[in-house]
Amino acid sequence: MNSLDRILELVAAHEPEPALVSGAQDKLEALVARRLAKLPVRPARAARGWLTAAATAAVVAVAMLWLPFGSAPAVAFEKIQEHFRDFRTLRFEVEQRMNGRLVMKSRVSVTHDGNVRTDVGDDITVIVNSTKRQVLTLMHSARVAIPSPLDEPATKDDALRWLKDIRDFQGEAKVLPRARLICGHWAHGWELATAGGPMVLWATDEGLPLEMTMGSSTPIELSFNFEFDMPLDAQLFSTEIPAGYSRGESED
Fold first, then answer.
1. Angstrom distance (rounded) from CA 204 to CA 210
2. In angstroms, what CA-CA distances link 163 with 11, 195, 231, 234?
3. Which pLDDT value is given to residue 4?
4. Res. 8: pLDDT tops 60
5. pLDDT given for residue 214 in this prediction
6. Sequence-ordered list of residues with C-beta below 8 angstroms from that of 12, at least 6 positions apart, any chain
7. Which of 51, 119, 172, 180 makes the best surface tag, with the fewest CB within 10 Å?
């Protein structure tokens, strides 16, 4: 969460007293009236009424910024599951922390037809090209590329096996009481008790998943940031050995 998101979230979490809103409105209307009285030519009653109405609307608009957002999202959890089932492309970053310390960061890109690219830090890239039935492992520090055949075509389940619990979830998804700002979008939290452990998933009113955490109550925690249906360059999934890399042999 960036600093602006955090500030706006803190603001939205505090509801003003009704007397505070009413008092602010009275003060603003009185200020407008005093300014109008000092004008050389008194405005017509219709003009004064318009300005007073505008002042009232301004106070209401300011007050609305302080009201907490509703705790019950309009979207059903099924809409969130649809994004994980029916995406054209999916890109996500995974951060693994142990006792709060970042130990690994990965980026995964997936296409609907089963092509997968996983970049583990800056050291290793694994590309699964389901169309060509090839796998390419790149060891960047050693500049070694290891090609190997793909025995079985990859599927979304292969690439996102750890999300199968979400797509097939049939239990009760618990809605968290407060919304959050994530990259400028208000998101609602859903807590799931799954066979793989508890998950907390954050999604927009339209059901678009943005973030997820797993294992927050354990020493090892995983956090995910999602991007759905983004354009992905076909070269990301190329299994051609890049220039400057020597060919290594698979251990199989």
1. 7
2. 34, 11, 22, 24
3. 46
4. no
5. 87
6. 65, 66, 67, 68, 69, 179
7. 172
